[in-house]
Amino acid sequence: MKFLILVLCLAQLWGCHAAPPGLGLAYRELNCDDPETEQAALVAVDYINNHSSRGYKHTLNQIDKVKVWPRRPMGEVFELEIDTLETTCHVLDPTPVVNCPVRQLKEHAVEGDCDFRVLKQDGQFLVLFAKCHSSPDSAEDVLKVCPGCALLAPLNDTRVVRAVEAALTVVNAGSNGSYFQLLEVTRAQLVPLPPSTYVEFAVAATDCIAKEVTDPAKCNLLAEKQYGFCKATFNEKAVGDAAEVTCTVFQTQPMLLQPQPDTNTPTTGVATAMPIPPSANLPAAAMVVGPLVVAAPPPSAPVNRAHYDLRNTFGGVASVESASGEAFQVGKAHTAVEPGMAAATRPLVRPCPGRIRHFKI
């Protein structure tokens, strides 16, 4: 009898641990490619991008698992495991993620791995829990696809720091308005042929005039933030250590692209391109600027990191739980199809994992 009681107690403890808090013990399974599942997954991806202040926007690549739990007194919670891919749009770029190109394998792609709980209630999806991490593709896989391609380099590599310093000098030398301050270095690659350093970095306009700056430390970011994103190639073999730079300056933004709880729609916008002339068009005397100001990485980020890890996205911790969540209005609900019970007008598909939208890392 004592053994039976012990078994029953252990079973109850296991059940409490296995089910998310506040949910019933019974759940239903949807196909990972069911439209209702995809709606929840897209809300999760929007949540990532709207809560990131560093790195690049991510896009949905694959839905790995889904369970739908009943939630008392009403609603359902979608428990999701999803894979994402890094795009080429910085998170401060107001371009909608659907218009952002996915970074390709030969460019050393980065994949995100996320767990989410998304509440669906009264025609709305609300993110209750989020946990993510991301990692670059292996060097071996990149070199199989493109043997001569450059791999990601540590962002604190001395060659990378020097390339960014030179590129920022070019940016400000070519600016007829504000002096731009470095926000973060987002990507770097050491190109073997010709020997050069490729960097990508984000900048922000300050209240100083670029042509008049003598002490960059006295410059402050504008009240209405204006951000830019730059790509540069620095050739140490060239005369004068030439840096070729192109930048896109986005429209003035009254605040960071990070919504507060209970926001009904994600922030979107259109990027306005304002090219910065390459160094070849600038006089040598203009290539003088103050010391480089680099934003400090999060405390949890490794010193030799080569990319921004999504595990640092949600307030510098691995996960976030919210009582109110993040609200998103959706269209009419789709009827869920249980595995093995597909409608006659709809072919039976493998429940999970779902289709790969871009490519698998």
UniProtKB/TrEMBL annotation:
Keyword Metal-binding tagged: no
Primary location class: secreted
Superkingdom of the source species: Eukaryota
Compartment(s) where it occurs, according to its Swiss-Prot or TrEMBL record: Secreted
Cellular component, GO annotation: blood microparticle; extracellular matrix
Limits of the Cystatin fetuin-A-type domain: 27-133, 144-255
Alphabetical keyword list: Disulfide bond, Glycoprotein, Phosphoprotein, Repeat, Secreted, Signal
GO terms for MF: cysteine-type endopeptidase inhibitor activity
Classification via Pfam families: Cystatin
Signal peptide: 1-18
Keyword check for Ubl conjugation: no
Name of this chain's protein: Alpha-2-HS-glycoprotein
Native source species: Phyllostomus discolor (pale spear-nosed bat)
